[in-house]
Amino acid sequence: MPATLSQLGLAWLLAQKPYIVPIPGSRNTDRVAENIAAADLALTAEDLAAIAPNGGLGGRLN
Questions:
Q1: Do residues 44 and 12 lie in contact, with contact meaning Cβ atoms separated by under 8 Å?
Q2: Which end of the chain is more exposed for a tag (fewer CB within 10 A), N or C?
Q3: Domain residue ranges in the chain
Q4: Helix H or strand E segment including 32
Q5: 3-state secondary structure of 23
Q6: Whole-prediction pTM
Q7: Nearest-angstrom CA–CA distance, 11 and 2
Q8: Which pLDDT belongs to residue 26?
Q9: DSSP string, 44-58
Q10: CA distance 53 to 39
Q11: Tens-digit pLDDT profile for the chain (62 aa)?
């Protein structure tokens, strides 16, 4: 099953430093289940480099 953008964002955050803890939204039970599933995504080094080629540092999109 493909991951949603929200799941990918949460998985990326979880793959950073162990002291970074995302606080996702939880308006309804479907979103809570989706957010929990993000913890099961295993991102490779290649995935992380493709998501944030500069390690997540740099300019922001407007």
A1: no
A2: C
A3: 5-51
A4: helix 29-38
A5: coil
A6: 0.77
A7: 13
A8: 85
A9: -HHHHHHH-TTTT-S
A10: 22
A11: 689 999 999 999 999 888 988 998 888 999 999 999 999 999 999 998 888 877 666 665 55
